[in-house]
Amino acid sequence: MCQIESLALTVSIQSQLLSKAWHDNEVHSLSSCASKNRTTVPKLDAAGEQARNQLIASLRHLEQLVLGPKDAMQSLYYRSAEAGVVQALCQLEVPQSVPLEGSISYTDLSTKVGVSEDRLKHLIRNAAVCSNYLRETENGEVAHSPNSSIWQLDPMMANGMEVMLNHLPSSSFKLGEVCTRDPNDEQEKVDGFSLARGAPLFEYLETNPDQGRRFAAHMRAQAAQSGDEAIQECYDWDSVKGKTLVDCGGSFGSVATAIVRKAPGVKCIVQDLPKVINSAIAVTAKNPNFPHDSVSFQAHSFLEPQPIVADLYLFRMVFHNWCDQGARRIIKALLPVLKPGARVIAIEYVMPPIGSAPIYAELATRRLDNVMYSLMKGKVRELEEFKDLFASVDTNLKFKSFRQGELKATHDPKCHSVLEWVYDPEPVVAGEPVVVAEPVAAMTKAEVPSLPVLDVAAVATTQHVDAENEPSTPVLSSPSESSTSSPGVVEVRDAQMAREDKKMADISVQEIRQSPDSPVHLS
Ligand SMILES: C[S@@+](CC[C@H](N)C(=O)[O-])C[C@H]1O[C@@H](n2cnc3c(N)ncnc32)[C@H](O)[C@@H]1O
To answer: Domain extents for the chain?
Structure first.
């Protein structure tokens, strides 16, 4: 039997398994998605999930074989052009102008969106035939297909897709230029997005508020689909009960909320950039179900010296946004406050070494790696790369555990792996000179931060801000008011170093205060 035949046989068997799992879980047929207004496939049991994963990979392989190399490569660039057609239709707000039920004539649609009937016909027919996006009815009108109905049924999800359609193809088509300009990935700001749009992603979003709002909504939608369960089950959160956890880059606190619901008694401080924290406080203040007594917010950039001495520092879906240089700065900013036994946890997609995982899982993760690099110069790291990254900052951060996420063909939070490090400093032998960790290239000696400048109680006072009357102002206590003694930190520094650190801490907090965007007030 030739390869095409054996693959086709596999596809047939996997299709039967999937169909069975599909029907066992919910009474409907594969083709009834549209009539039932579904935008996602129904929940599957393990066997069904596995069949679906394998089917996605087999179909792709089969298509490549059937096309042969020349047509396969042609279809690659045709598909990228087809994405351009869908992007254009979105920009023209065509999917919002087509009713979810029924249809609309080209004449009416043309009037609504301000583009000629002829051009609309070409665009819509291309999208319908090539991307199953919209469709033409028998009487020649435009109606939704299952794919385009997302724009009516789930505007948040559609929003995220538009953000990607708007920026990902143009950014990824700059990769060659990125590599030419920065062959060793040393310049954080030379990335595909910056070359395509003239500014790094987050700067661009700041100056393009509409895109910024869409992006924020996309991030919230992503967080909302995360489901508490994946977070709650991925780590022994009970082991943090009665202790302090800082969720670095924790956005609106959805992860922290899931954690404290699973393990009441964990004290969470969610840190993020000032604008994010501002909004988070305003939004959560209105939510009576938000666990205000255990989750508080603090404006803090994780590139700056960490101000809180905590038991656990959590980074969920943060490191993949950063190249090694930036990721080292983030880890390094923790060092001044790490006490022996402090844990650093990353919850992340982890890249399987090439060829080691099922192809569908590797494909999904490599796609993500490309998205991260194109948009932000980030990367999805292999386990060994993560270990090397942390070790390159401080060998006292000892790698402790790894929990592999589920391997799937599509992304969801169950695919996140958990990596854990523990700060376990080598004992200082009496009489030996004290060795302070060598700053990594991104930081000069003068930048080596900092003493703890906040106490947890001060941060916790931020939680009951009345969003209506008070513009979300996390209150930081000033360095001078805070304890400057941190067990296990100050001891290993000489007095000169400590003075320099203190100066840097003062400056960095001052910078936050002086920033025109900052909602932070120092009392
Ligand atoms: C991919 S999101 C992950 C959000 C959250 N951890 C989660 O898992 O849902 C990355 C987060 O990092 C935040 N971020 C980016 N740069 C930051 C910085 N310099 N300091 C603190 N947070 C930052 C972003 O605002 C965003 O909330």
So the answer is: 3-155, 159-219, 228-364+380-522
Spatial strand order in the sheet of 343-348:
295-299, 267-272, 244-248, 312-316, 343-348, 417-423, 397-403
104 Cα to the center of ligand 1, angstroms: 42
**Per-residue pLDDT band at 437 (split at 50, 70, 90):** very low
Non-local (6+) Cβ contacts of 142 within 8 A are 94, 98, 103, 104, 105, 106, 109, 120, 124, 134, 135, 136
Question: What pLDDT, on the 0 to 100 scale, is given for residue 389?
Answer: 98
Q: What is the pLDDT of residue 331?
A: 98
Cα 301 to Cα 290: distance, rounded to the nearest angstrom: 23
152-172 mean pLDDT: 92
Two structure tokens written together for 98: 């087509």
Which residues lie closer than 8 Å to 268 by C-beta, 6 or more apart? 244, 245, 246, 247, 250, 253, 256, 259, 260, 294, 295, 296
Q: Stretch 365-384: mean pLDDT, rounded?
A: 96
230 in contact with ligand 1, CB cutoff 6 A: no
CATH 3.40.50.150, domain 228-364+380-522, yes or no: yes
CATH number of 3-155: 1.10.10.10
Residue nearest to atom 9 of ligand 1 (CA): 223
> DSSP class of residue 382?
B
Instruction: Report which residue type is found at 177.
Output: E
Report the SS3 class of residue 248: strand
Nearest atom of ligand 1 to the alpha carbon of 320: 1
- pTM of the entire predicted model: 0.77
* Tokens 């009970």 found at: 238
d(CA 504, CA 501): 5
Distance CA 196, CA 174 (A): 7
- 365, two tokens: 């993760």
Interatomic CA distance for residues 449 and 163, integer angstroms: 36
Find the 189 Cα to ligand 1 centroid distance in Å.
17
